[in-house]
## 1
Amino acid sequence: SQTIHQWPATLVQPVGSPLSLECTVEGTSNPNLYWYRQAAGRGLQLLFYSVGIGQISSEVPQNLSASRPQDRQFILSSKKLLLSDSGFYLCAWSPGGSGQPQHFGDGTRLSIL
Amino acid sequence: DAKTTQPNSMESNEEEPVHLPCNHSTISGTDYIHWYRQLPSQGPEYVIHGLTSNVNNRMASLAIAEDRKSSTLILHRATLRDAAVYYCIPPGTSYDKVIFGPGTSLSVIP
């Protein structure tokens, strides 16, 4: 069966520090991969999605970037964190093709001080 | 620009059925209807999806209107663990992107 791993679960970082969040998927090949952010008490905002290695689409301009160095690995990064980057970050995967549901990781709660 | 409409919140008594409505009047003929739920401090969880016919799985049932402009997620017997935010995913996102609106916050009363 397919599983998705996301780490760390919790992270506290100072303003201006770099960020790297990693997400890996097991048990499937060539998945679509996604990064979302959820601010406290708000809905989910799609940040990036990828349909293949090295293919990244960005949904909103921001201080963050994403990379997909391997088929089942998706990384969210920042060179310098802002206070506004605080939130709950979620990675998800779906099989390719139309109408396929997404499956989410457990999320990373990021606090910027 | 929201393409779906869900009530902000609903309440249900434990052990009773719950019907969560969603209007998606701009849906196209090839758009699937997806439902997810999010428990506190967790990532969203896929619940069910369908295209035209009603669908059942171990978690819930999905009733889709004949004109497909609305759907209803049915939890047959609400438990305390069903307290969550339920998202009906807008049409036009059937390929590779899922856009989450505010959803319906379901409270289950013991």
## 2
Amino acid sequence: GAVVSQHPSWVICKSGTSVKIECRSLDFQATTMFWYRQFPKQSLMLMATSNEGSKATYEQGVEKDKFLINHASLTLSTLTVTSAHPEDSSFYICSAPRWAKDTQYFGPGTRLTVL
Amino acid sequence: DQQVKQNSPSLSVQEGRISILNCDYTNSMFDYFLWYKKYPAEGPTFLISISSIKDKNEDGRFTVFLNKSAKHLSLHIVPSQPGDSAVYFCAASAYNAGNNRKLIWGLGTSLAVNP
């Protein structure tokens, strides 16, 4: 069964609004979670590393004020796309590593469409 | 600069035959390599991994080979089944500046297994 969940699975919003995406690890604790973005026919692009109890680490070129990340607990990280624009439309995926098993488990992804 | 390269964007194989997906990397700091399978609009699913201290890891129909001197790894699927049709991502793992492990992804290879 799924070990990482994401909510919502898809969302359509108007330009200028903010959208929050939740990522939960279901049966393990994750002090670190990763947020990815995938454009059509492209690879996964790491946006940021979410750290429980501290600030997220953003990859180069990712606007931290636009993509707000909060890792409030050991099982929950949220990504808020603020003042969304059509170019933010994408597939957003989170993952939680289980390094004891040497892998990351991915959520099912969230399809964001900004009109 | 693509540190992990999957030079074949697509591959078509007959059911029952072997599928070989290739991956090259440039960074000698990578010490762990993983293969993920991804269906459209879903998060990636972990398939198999290999540590840099090994040259082969086998799990059922999936075998990963690592050639460190050539900085090359490959995923063999035998026998291939129609349900294997998906995009396969190669990822390499290394520690980032914050001492967290980070995955660097290839662009993926779309595998089509024909009945």
